[in-house]
Amino acid sequence: MPRFPQKRVADMQRRSGSWLAFCAAVLTAFTPALAHESPVDHVDRAIRISVANGKLNVRYQVQLSERAALMQFQRMDANADGAVTVEERTAFLDAFQRDLGQQLSVELDGKALALKPDGAAKLLPQCRQVFTFSAPIGELKSGRYKGRMLDSYSRNFPGAYRWDGPKTPGTEGPQVLVAEAPKMHDTDGHPSVLQIKFDVVMP
Amino acid sequence: MRTFLSAFLSATLATLSFGGEDKPVEATAPSPMTKASGAVTIDGALDEPFWKDCAAIRCDFINTKPGQQSEQPRMVVKYAWDEHFLYIGYETFDANLSAKGKGVKDGPEKNQREGCEIAGAKEEKIDVVEFFISFGDENFFWEIHHNALNQFNDIWITTVNPAWPISKSSLPMYGIFFYDKEFIKDDGEKTTAMAVKLNPRADGTPSTVNTPADMDTGYTAELRLPWGGLGAPQAARPDERKKLTEWKMENQQMMLLAVVQDGDLPERYHHSAPNRKNDWFHKTPGAWPRYVLAKGGAAEPAKKAAVDLNELSTEALAAEILRRLDNKESVAELVQAASDHGMAMARALSRELNRGTSARQEALMNIVALAARCRQSHGELLKHYDPPAFETFYGPNARAEQERYAGALKSAVWPRQSASMLIQAAPLPLLDWMSAQAVSDTPDIPKLLSVWNQWGSNIVFRHERQHAPAVRALAGRFAQNAHILSNPNALGALVRFAGESGASEVTEFVLKALEHPQISVRAEACRALPRLATTFPDAMLRAAGKESDGTVLLMFGEALQGWPTDARAGEAALTLFERAPSADVRRAVLFSAIDAKWPQRTDLLARAFAMPGDGVLGVALQAIAEKPVPALSAKTTELMTELPEPPAPLIDALGAAGDVKAAPYLARTLKESKNLAISLKLALALEKIGGPEAHAALLAQLKSATQPLLAQHLAGIAGRVKLAGSEETLISLAEDTTAPLPVRLQSIAALGAFPTESVRASLQKIDANPEKFFGAGDAAATPSSQSELVEQARMLVKLALLQHGDAKAADAALELFRRGTPTTQITLLMMLARLKRDHPAVAEGLASQEFAVLLASVHAAGAADAPKYRERLTALKRAPFVRAILESGLNSNGLEAALDAALSTEKGG
To answer: 112-141 in A: which are within 8 Å (CB) of B?
Structure first.
């Protein structure tokens, strides 16, 4: 079969414009009932990594849209009575936290860390959920250690990302500094994930 | 048109006092300017972490009163720097944003920006922000302007020293040369950039520019100016011999004056220089604030405050807010952090609400109103996410809790944010107050107007979850207050409030307003009635025959869409169309007819063919496109001879009419069209018309289209109509790794419709080695969007194979569905819906907690096998939290209609 005319392909590429516009067009083409904007709820996230007491700690905050929060409640409300009990909420968030922890992979100094949930999830006004994790790193000697976090959860939902610390670089104690502006990391043909490269500076 | 120079002069002259002292001003020590760190996105939001470390510089010094600051903050500015740019971030607090572009662009060839007017007619009340930027020279510097519409001027300024001979020349005006044709050049890839982000109003929607009727809250902006373009010192220039690119700016000094013009204020100009006398800004450089570009950052006190903010407890942050207000400092940077604390912050500030100056009260009310906006949320969400809010609005002591915020109800004059704060934070006390006002002999009309305006709007947009019935009931009581009815302004506002709150019990009262002598009252009545009257009122029919005011008739025409099935509305539409004094009214009537089922619809549209001018025929064609009118087919087709190049509405109408006679005309136009939007419409029209001629044209286009979006749509059409002869092209497109991915995706999806050997072989080839075909993709794609599309491509190959009878593909598609992103899942589900094909993914999708996936699943379930999913769909429709989405102002993307459609389907499809 003849190859597609290269001049035509070149023309197409020259005219292809915004790639995101094409994503939207594809979605729209298949989903006429869903109008023109992606109906997938955005999730805004703020991530803080810190080091203290021989542990690396990750504070992962998500902010849901009200619609997404109501959909979570729909899932929690097993008996469909329109009320969510603390037990139902805790069970849901515990499971979510475990799942989220498995989707966060952290390396420090070239070694993978075993991140575990560290305390229960916290809910804050404006549909914010805070999950904390930690991994033992032992007593590090004075120096600078390279670290990386890959956030596979980020591949599912569009939304803003914010580095949430440290607030006071240069003060006493271990510091975690972003070494490279966070960016989306391609994952072998599958949707990209958020990557944060950071340095741990031990005094 | 006024020239820039004359506009500039008239604006600046208005502020001048020529009798000022000429004593030199003692320069103050330079303040440190923070170095920016990390990536800086110029989007108008000051959310990069370094902005928090920058000193917040108040621009509140009144131009005509040297050294005196305004009571209310006018603008806060922050400066930052790095090796390539000066960054300016600022926030204004203007309650009525006004901006005007010059209509011409300026700047480097590849970085043109529209200029902004800095003065206009008095009623335009133009606002603009100005910066004067110098590296130490008091006679040569930049003056830049920026406004809320992100328009930008850069002017090179030369002021003339009286000792220079040129000062005797007639060339400089007022001793100043304005080189407005000069511009800040880009420094290679380091370009000038600017952006604006409008602050949210009390109801959460963004402030608006040039809409005087509403209450804005200002905006934030970011400017990025390259050192090379600004003319930074030669000594700081990168050493090209060493292939350096970074400017050595540390310890360089600058002079920077910030000015804000607010067109609404009698004191229009405020600035950032405490010691500046009242003169041309250009002539007081000695008093401009000076800065030194420091590595470490801003002055310590400001840095300390910024560092602490995010860690402060609610009480500590509230104390910091009060401290700043008492010191007349801006609290703008604290507002977001404060509202993040939810109703706990509102509580902490509640005791201070009615103390101090009106500016202080207004600032606190704004924070409380923002925090209390959570009342728009579902009660169960508040219970878990913001327990103080739940107690305040749903708890057993809700009324007592809300009284904390109700002090304003006893004030003679309300600060600006009062109504919105009371509606959000103290609805029960406010309802009590309104009840008393309803029977008062001296109702406080200005306060009532502000409450009606905001609460009515909240109900229309379904943001009032709790008290809509009580508000509605009050509208009826106000309608019995003679003192209110005797005030035409109050009457018009009440009519509108009655409509917005849906107070159907006062329909008769609103109908009477149709005959009120005041035009605005009649217009409001027309606007309100569709929300109140379920059947078209006789009084409106009578009004259609005698109303003469153009504004009222326009409202009337728009109101008709409220009764799309009522024949009397159709009768009124005909009368109105005939009596209309302008095309505006005729178009409004026709817009209402687009979805109407009136028996008079055909007659009405036929009349539009007789009076086609000023866009009237265009709207009629839109109506025909929406719902074809066989009786007008001939007339529609006749237009082809009159219009060699069809406008978009005619293309749509011809497609909807489905008359094969239109095919050659549309095909010829498609072949010649250079306009992508028109080409897409032509292709879709030909798809609807069908037949050999239309298909031949579509096939020819599929083979030759170079516009990716057009090729993508043509591939989709080929699949939908099973376009004979298109298989080879579709295969070629699907397999061509250099073709744009969306075109390939659509081609793969289309191949499912062609169960031939060659197609199957191609699909199997792709399926066997997806990385080969989708690994590289298009160079223009970002990794994120491309990999999403690659995943969808894998899914679509499976789906196409499934259509070809490959049973294994169903399992593989399910596996891809399970590990796919929501977007990928939606793609599969909507394809299944289109193919009316059941699949295990449908049941899994119906259990999804992602709204969009659920919605797509409902579509798929309804199309594939509605009876099978009836029980699940019924449960979903009744589920309390799904109902909470459907019954609120949240965007449900048509979920209710999709559920109803699926549940009313007896069999698949």
So the answer is: 123-128
Two tokens, residue A191: 């949707």
pLDDT tens for each residue of B690-729: 999 999 999 999 998 888 889 999 999 999 999 999 999 9
Going by pLDDT thresholds of 50, 70 and 90, the confidence category of residue B365 is very high
Concatenate the DSSP letters of all residues of B127-140 into one string: -EEEEEEESS-SSE
Which single residue is written with the structure tokens 């470390």? Answer: B53
Q: With an 8 Å Cβ cutoff, are A15 and B708 in contact? A: yes
Enter the tokens of residue B587: 């178009």
Query: Is there a contact between B876 and B903 (Cβ–Cβ < 8 Å)?
Result: no
A27 interface with B at CB cutoff 8 Å? yes
Residues in chain B: 909
- The SS3 of residue B503 is coil
Residue B778 to residue A19, Cβ atoms within 8 A: yes
Residues 6 or more apart whose CB falls under 8 angstroms from that of B879 comprise A74, A77, A80
Given pLDDT bands bounded at 50, 70 and 90, which one contains residue B3?
very low
Burial group, residue B142, by CB count within 10 angstroms (0-12, 13-18, 19+): buried
Restricting to A residues 143-172, those with a Cβ less than 8 Å away from any Cβ of B are: 155-157, 162-163, 167-168
* Element spanning B375, H or E: none
The values of phi and psi at residue B47, to 5°, are -110, 0
Provide the shortest C-alpha distance from residue A60 to chain B (in Å).
Answer: 15
Q: How many CA atoms lie within 13 A of B378 on its CB side?
A: 27
* Buried b / exposed e along B53-65 (16+ C-beta atoms within 10 A): bbbbbbbbbbbee
CA dihedral B565, B566, B572, B574 (to 10 degrees): 40
Tell me the pLDDT band of B458, cut-offs 50, 70 and 90: very high
Cα angle B250, B252, B258 (rounded to 5 degrees) comes to: 115
Q: Read out DSSP for B727-786?
A: HHHHHHHHH-TTS-HHHHHHHHHHHTT---HHHHHHHHHHHH-HHHHHSS--TTS-HHHH
Residue that is written with structure tokens 């699943």 in the block: B857
Distance CA B402, CA B396 (A): 12
Which residues neighbour B519 within 8 Å (Cβ) at sequence distance 6 or greater?
B549, B551, B552
Residue B717 host element (H or E): helix B708-721
Residue B623's Cα: distance from chain center in Å?
A: 28
> Which of A3, A80, A189 is the closest to B880 by Cβ?
A80
**Closest Cα in chain A to B770:** A189
Nearest to B712 among A25, A34, A156 (CB): A25
The pair of three-digit structure tokens given for residue B178, joined into one six-digit string = 């304005």
CA distance A202 to chain B (A): 21
Radius of gyration of chain B (CA): 33
Q: Which pLDDT does position B778 carry in this prediction?
A: 38
Identify the pLDDT of residue B306. Answer: 45
C-alpha to C-alpha distance for B795 and B825, rounded to whole angstroms: 9
**What residues in B contact A74, CB-CB < 8 Å?**
849, 879-882
Element holding B13 (H helix, E strand): helix B4-13
Q: How many Å separate Cα B149 from the centre of its chain?
A: 13
Does the structure show a pLDDT above 70 at B519?
yes
What is the rounded distance in angstroms from the CA atom of residue B371 to the CA atom of residue B383? 15
pLDDT at B62: 87
In chain A, residues with a C-beta closer than 8 Å to the C-beta of B850 are: 40-41, 68, 71
Q: Provide the Cα torsion B569, B571, B572, B577; round to 10°.
A: 120
Residue B824, helix vs strand vs coil: helix
Q: Which helix (H) or strand (E) holds B52?
A: helix B49-53
B638 or B305: which leads in pLDDT: B638
Among all chains, which residue has been given the structure tokens 């744009």? Answer: B740
With contact defined as beta carbons under 8 Å apart, do B101 and B115 qualify? yes
